[in-house]
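Task: sequence in, structure out. Protein: Radical SAM protein.
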Amino acid sequence: MRTPGAILLISCYELGHQPFHLASLSATLQQADYVPVCVDTSVDTLSDEAIRQARFVAISVPMHTALRLGEQIAQRIRQINPTAHICLYGLYALLNAEHLLDETINSAIGGEYETPLLSLITAIEQDDSSPVPGVYTRTASSGPWIERTPFLAPKRQQLPDLERYARLQIGNEMRLVGYTESTRGCKHTCLHCPVTPIYGGRFFAIPAEVVLTDIRTQVARGARHITFGDPDFWNGPTHALRILRHMHAEFPDLTFDATIKIEHLLKHQSLLPEMKTLGCVFIVSAVESLNPTVLSRLDKGHTASEVSKAFELAEQAGIALRPSLLPFSPWETLDSYIELLTFFEERHLIEHLDPVHLSIRLLIPPGSALLAASHHEEWLGELDAVNYTYRWQHPDPRMDELQQKVARVVELAESQKADSLLSFFEVKALALAAQGQRLSTFRALRQYGAAKVLPHLTESWFC
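Result:
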């Protein structure tokens, strides 16, 4: 297990970023004198030779798209190297462990992954078949490992250059983007969020010096912008600001973005001007919907009026607020979907949206906190394990049909790099058509006027 190539670490998709979850695990294993090989299949090819050499393969699956790609890679590895131990780790690994363990993988880890993964590799090396805490296998069930990790600065030497990943676009300028995390988990428990069933409202702060060391490493490799990928950067605002102040003092021209709840933007609004001064160019926030029933069922902790207020506060501070949306759920209605579109149109906020968010449909993975909520009997179907979600059908058939049409429009627009304003109005035309109304997209474009140019990443997918 200590020869080069015996341990193979694979990332499939981390939202267009250099894979943090490979770098962090690699640091833990290297400290223990292992020599893992890292491959990011989103930009590189995984060779048959690398697969044959591996005795242990760990595949990072922090999100749904990564899991879909990761399972395909695991199946390929199983065919080429039947004796290799394959472990999937990340939020979606443990939630879908029973399906994955059926035929494809040997183990799954959720929560804080570095310590149980190191213990698993050590056990395999010593031919010890005893259950490993935090590791779910065919013979030993285990919940998520929610214990504080002895955090180390990620090791990025083996990872592809930053030039091969998403850029920050500000006007005509393109900047190389680094990625890091200052916390793990989340103290909030939104019912649809995959973090909730794994962390259950807990979060861990990564030591500031570990985060700053990781930032220095990426700046030395050309990064001029940093994405903080925490589920919520302001779970610990004092910790976040401490890191940003040190970062800005050391790299005054470095910009950044972060994900922050609407609730926190209002609660800590006094911090927004300093965030701008420290280099914040945009904030991602999980708005999800403006329908009060949807927000209540998801336990989002904000209202439509508070979303409007958050946009005003961000604009006053000179920071672009980029919402993520979940507009297709059993509680959204055709009327409220159109109201959501109208909200962005009337406030001249369409440019803040990535069109893909107009198509997102609720996923309910095994273990989702939504399954424990009431009032779902009329729409919830059986588990579709192959697609990692429970099936559900909207009470209004028009909404399921609309979602499919919207998905096709935004996927085509993404592939063709089409104008986002035009995509928006094409979606609105579809929604109005479902009500028997018509909309001229070109007339709507003319009435909307000139588009704002906002800073954004060239990779627009957030799920």
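The first strand starts at residue 7 and ends at 11.
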